[in-house]
Design a protein that fits this description.
The protein has 297 residues and is mostly helical. Among the domains are: 102 residues, no CATH class; 94 residues, Orthogonal Bundle (Arc Repressor Mutant, subunit A). It contains twelve helices and four strands. The strands form two sheets. Strands 1-2 form a two-stranded antiparallel sheet.
Length: 297
Amino acid sequence: MTATQICMAFNLPQVLKALLFSTSQPLSVKDIQSAFTRFHDEAARAAMLPGQAPADNQPVQAGGADENPAAAALAAAESEVAEVPALEHPELYGDVPSLVTAAQIREAMDGIAGELRAANEVCLLTETAQGWRLVTQPRFARWVRVLRNEPPPLKLSPSALETLAVVAYRQPVTRAEIEAIRGVAAEGGLNKLLERGLIVITGRAELPGRPLHYGTTDAFLEFVGARSLDELPASDVLSSRQIDDWLKDAANPVRLGDAEMGLPLEPGEAGSEPGNGTGELAVARSPGESADATAGP
């Protein structure tokens, strides 16, 4: 049964809208299904209120409700209150399904999100790693900050963004690995990202000195608009193979001599003779020329 079929008797999208507006926290599939379970549990308890016919295995107390008029009146009032919503709002309380699947919930949420976008409402429905959440349109951000008396959000510097990208694609990663990849110190950027809650210390590496490991948080996923790290765009620049090569080169740097730097060699300096295999003053040879042939006129 799809969400459309459910809505013929029970309006699932309207109920989901009410649940979304009732909380500022993300609403997951598990939260919604738990709400439906509690709804039916409460309905089952309401069916067994005092004053109603007891089940066959429950003893009937002497005197019945006549000996306790207050209890009978309370039971009648509770029964009336429990029945009114179902009678007045059958699309909300009538024929409530005992189980709503994740596919039905997602279909209904997609419909709500589409309606909000089409109507250009002040709210948007977004999905995060924790569930669905109603958020204010970005164009109203200034009014929200004025109401809350909050300063404008601080933007991340290019250096901090680069550090965040390395952590996101390489995690868990140490500060030394970040600095080897970027070629500059990363302590300042890491501290800023920690303060913003975009990264967190996840443990220690099994390396000498036990350096700290860093990884991203759920706030990072919300920051980039992704539900999981799998949704991050593929990056050839930050592929694991290339990063491993960079780290290996950083751990074993190549020593550059004067020839590699393009500096002239002093007469008599080791390796100053042409054709010595160092490449400083090597002369191109034609095919078949002897390796020890001198470069004469």
